[in-house]
Specification:
Residues 49-97, 458-490 are annotated as: Disordered. Keywords: Leucine-rich repeat, Repeat. Residues 458-468 have a biased composition (Basic and acidic residues). A hairpin with a 2-residue loop joins strand 17 (585-587) and strand 18 (590-592). Among the domains are: 106-253, Ribonuclease Inhibitor (Leucine-rich repeat, LRR (right-handed beta-alpha superhelix), Alpha-Beta Horseshoe); 323-463, Ribonuclease Inhibitor (Leucine-rich repeat, LRR (right-handed beta-alpha superhelix), Alpha-Beta Horseshoe); 605-758, Leucine-rich repeat, LRR (right-handed beta-alpha superhelix). It is of the alpha/beta class. The protein has 16 helices and 26 strands. It is globular. The relative contact order is 0.03.
Length: 804
Amino acid sequence: MNYSNVEDTAALYAFNNLPKECNTSTSNGGYDFDDCSWFTFFGNPNDMSEDSLPSNDHRSGSTSRIPRCAQRPRQMASANRFHQMAASPRPSPRPNYSFQPVFHERKTHEDDTVLTQELWKLARKSGTLNLSNKGLASVPERLYDINEADAESKAATLEQLSIKDEDAWWNQVPLTNLDLSSNALSHISPKIENLQSLTVLILHDNALVALPAEIGKLEKLMRLNVSRNKLSDLPRELYSLPELRHLNISYNEFSELNPDISDLHMLEFLDAGHNSIKSLPGGIGFLVRLTALLLPYNHIKDLPPDLVNMRSLQRLDLMQNDLTCLPEDMGLLRKLQFLYIQHNDIMELSDFEGNETLTELHASNNYISNIPISMCENLPHLKVLDLRDNKITQLPDELCLLRNLNRLDVSNNSIDTLPVSLAALAHLISLQVEGNPIKSIRRDILQCGTSRILRTLQERSMAKSKDEGESDSGAGARLCGGQAGNDTAANYPDSYQPQHQQKHFEYQFQYRAQAHMQPQAERFRVYEPPHNCPPYSRQGQEHVYDQENYETEKKFDYSGQYMQQQQHNFRFNGYSAMYQQQQQLFYGQCVVCPRWVYKLRHTRTLAVNLEEITDVPEEVFQLAQKEGVHVVDFARNQLRTVPDGLQHMQNIVTELVLAHNRIGQVPQFISQFTRITLLNLSNNLLTDLPKEFGVLNTLRELNIANNRFSFLPSGLYDLQGLEILIASDNHINELNVAGLQRMPRLSTLDLRNNDIDFIPPILGTLTNITHLELVGNPFRQPRHQILMKGTESIMSYLRDRVPR
């Protein structure tokens, strides 16, 4: 090594002969520079002042070096402070801190500290205690005495309690709601019996392997959730809880259900999904109050026969099991609305006779080969039919009888032809047929979606009708569709057709559908009788109605001749039925088919779709009112006003559908419908609703999409019971959040494709809204990426921008 001057040589010598104390670590982890004699020669490296710094200018010929133990230039900012430390006496050693690792064994005293004094007081005031997601390994012991007066309250005088009246014992509420979910609890203490006032106990997402028998002493308990634990059985004492209504044992390790579960006579909800249950106990049919039975993702092969005794059952979920068939008496479940049987081994479907209230049937991923015709006849209110991934080879024409069907999914089957009768489904908005070897319709049409497929089927139906010679010169105009020729009146108890009178009533109606479309249709008929027809014979037709069942028929105005009724003629060019060979009855000035009266009484539905009618006679609604009809559907016609005859049904109608018409104004009498729950006014020409609209306290769902609204009508904000509001595809330009705040039950708000240019951040504070649609509006914030993430992201974004 070459050294340029003597100083460098001396520096190297001094560095190689450092005293031992310079290499000794101090308590603070560094070096003690003060006692090192080497720094006496070269100066303390902590002193980084300009006077003490050696020159580093290579051009001046001085090449002095800084030892490695000296501070680096980036520490010069603290030079003065280090200089003072070097001049001062040696500082005391840095304290040795002990750090507790994040993951460690939870101690009992740590669990006790979770129940703070603030939570304690809040629980005693509200009766609700939320200790969810606190990392608890055990329940704080203090919790079991929360209903007792604490030591502070006992020691306080009456004067002290009067000063803090809110903390006084007389204002304390017994604990009724306890949430211990999402912790690490492995057991529950028998002291749980001290919480006698509990009505809700939530223990899901823990590590429980058993429950104490003392839980059976919580006689007021109504809701128990122990899902996502490691339970394989429940204590027998639990089945004696007299008020238990909601029981969730899903995501556990149950292999069977205890037969004692039938002792829970008040049980309304049972979720035992995601276990290893292979069979159900025979006495489960005694749960007659049960409205929801959820058993998905188990290994159930057979259902007990007494399952059909659950007459209150509305929802039955049996998906992802090993079922091969359904009970023969499924029709006894007359209140069943939702049935989930997908991903099983079912070979054929039931006819579901008696399940008229069924609205959703999910039977995908099975081995079903055909759709029973009788099933189509027995499910008039079915809205969703999911049959994808089966072995179906043909769709029956009778599918058109499912007149309320909204979604039909038959994808991934073996269907090669679509029946033209599907075009008669007025409410069908989703038809899924991909994955089938369909040859009757071009692939490019199938790829265009539901509307294009239905339009193609409609055109083919009209063309076929024309080829078969069914022209528009039929005998008179009428409302509704008809009957297949092979379906005689003898099949209906309310109709009779004498052979000697058939020749007088054999006439053919205009239609544009196939001759086999809509057998046993439920549509009513108002006919214009043929000319030159013999007078009405009361003696030949008096037995059409049984006087025992039709005591009110004596009020009918039976005439001896066909009266002029041109003012009640209704031409239609839709998909009705064919020809009718059945005698007619007179109701006022309208001729009504007895077959329709029979269907009207049994379905409680008045549905006339795709008929291009412009008005409805008042007598039709009078008859419907006498038969107790509660569903009225006139969708896809040419109505320009709401029929005045609806006023006769204002006390019985629960669902009113007037979508796809040309209605420009809603009359004020709509506010007199005291039982209506669903109102569909979509695809009309409405710009406003009457102010009296807000008195419809029973209304739960309102659809005003595809109209001409520029604002949400003020009457909507008074609908205290409204849960679903669909107002998409209008011209709404602003949101009245103050009005929406007055709707406490509103959970679904659809405002897609409007002209809203600003979303008030305060909208995010409406916690009752769980489904919000805002796509297709011109506002800039929230961005489209946020809208695509869903309602939760939208509401969170808006809440973050609320002014503080």
